[in-house]
Structure formats: structure tokens, C-alpha cells
């Protein structure tokens, strides 16, 4: 094992693991027989996502930490400022019409998800942003549900200097191309 490079349980450097997961996620969505409503995460979403989707026949339902009763718990001031700053910059440059671009709790209609995945080119945190920006570009409707995000108990955040630089590059690329 190389020193100075963090490795995961598959003995891949962490940056390769992230690329591997993004590739696997795209492959699963392309090859799988997805149900009519599909979540981009490998988790079960709370019932409020499904009821919001049915209520407004939204193409995308996104969890937001920044509206209503939404919020974050367990983050220090630095992490909150980074998150707010990233969302503020995204709002100013991209005008997405959604309040939480960096969140990842989302529900997509199958055909919407397939089209968005086909057109998205970003990786990492920018991927989540691009999905919403492309959804707006294709005139899909987006509903929002307040969520309370609780920081992880085990493990550590993947957010570091490299991710912030990657986010800024991706943000500027989206600004220039959408």
C-alpha cells in the first residue's frame, strides 16, 4: 500500500473508489429494470417523497435542508458554511429553481432518471447538481420536501480540499455549458 494515499476496504485509493461507485451507479441504472419511481440512492426514501410526487405529479422530488423544517444536525460551523456557500454560489450562477443542489435524497420518475443519466457528465458532488440543472433544462417539474440531515456516526466525511476544487470546476463548467 502506498503511503499518503487513503485506501478503502477493496484496497483502491479513495478517489478511484468514488469513480468506481459513480460508474457502477450509472451501469445499474442503464441495465436494470427499474420500477416506475426510482430513487437515485440505494436507500428507501421516507413516504413524504412519494406522497409529494403523487400530489404534484413531479418528475423529480428532492429533499432540501434549506426550506421549512429542514436542517442539518451534527455539523460544525465550517461544514455548514461550506454547504451554504456551495448552494449560494450554485443558485447565483445556475438559477436552478431548487433550494438544495448538493443534497442527494431524490426521487425520479424512471424515464426522467434515464434521460438525465444519459446527459450528465459530471462526477462527485457536481453530479447531484448537474442532475437538477439538467432537469430544469429539459423542463421537468421539481418538487421539494424538507429533510433533517443528521451527520454520520461512523466513518468520516469525504469532503476535503480536492472535492471543493472539483466542485468549483464543475460549477463553472455547468455555468458555461447550460
Write the layout of secondary structure elements.
Layout: H1 14-31, E1 37-39, H2 47-56, E2 60-64, E3 71-73, H3 77-94, E4 106-109, H4 110-119, H5 125-137, E5 142-146, E6 148-150, H6 161-177
Parallel strand pairs: 2-5, 3-6
Antiparallel strand pairs: 1-4, 2-4
Protein name: Dolichol-phosphate mannosyltransferase subunit 1
GO molecular function: dolichyl-phosphate beta-D-mannosyltransferase activity
GO biological process, one term: GPI anchor biosynthetic process
How would you describe the overall organization of this protein?
By secondary structure, the chain is an alpha/beta fold. The protein has one domain (34-150, 157-177). The chain is 48% helix and 13% strand. The strands form two sheets. A four-stranded mixed sheet has the order 1-4-2-5. It has a two-stranded parallel sheet with strand order 3-6. Helix 3 (77-94) packs parallel to helix 6 (161-177) and helix 5 runs parallel beside helix 6 (161-177). Keywords: Glycosyltransferase, Transferase.
Give a quick precis of the structure.
It comes from Eleutherodactylus coqui. The chain is α/β, with parallel strands linked by helices and 178 residues long.
Amino acid at each position: 500500500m502506498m503511503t499518503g494515499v487513503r485506501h478503502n476496504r477493496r484496497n483502491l485509493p479513495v478517489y478511484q473508489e468514488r469513480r468506481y461507485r459513480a460508474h457502477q451507479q450509472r451501469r445499474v441504472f442503464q441495465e436494470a429494470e427499474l420500477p416506475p419511481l426510482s430513487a437515485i440512492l440505494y436507500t428507501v426514501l421516507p413516504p413524504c417523497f412519494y406522497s409529494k410526487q403523487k400530489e404534484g405529479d413531479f418528475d423529480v422530488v428532492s429533499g432540501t435542508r434549506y426550506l421549512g423544517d429542514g436542517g442539518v444536525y451534527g455539523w460544525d460551523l465550517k461544514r455548514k458554511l461550506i454547504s451554504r456557500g456551495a448552494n449560494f454560489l450554485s443558485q447565483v450562477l445556475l438559477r436552478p429553481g431548487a433550494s438544495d443542489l448538493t443534497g442527494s435524497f431524490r426521487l425520479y420518475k424512471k424515464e426522467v432518471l434515464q434521460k438525465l443519466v444519459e446527459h450528465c457528465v459530471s462526477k462527485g458532488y457536481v453530479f447531484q447538481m448537474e442532475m437538477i440543472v439538467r432537469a430544469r433544462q429539459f423542463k421537468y417539474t421539481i418538487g421539494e420536501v424538507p429533510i433533517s440531515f443528521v451527520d454520520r456516526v461512523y466513518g468520516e466525511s469525504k469532503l476535503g480540499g480536492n472535492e471543493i476544487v472539483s466542485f468549483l470546476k464543475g460549477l463553472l463548467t455547468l455555468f458555461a455549458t447550460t
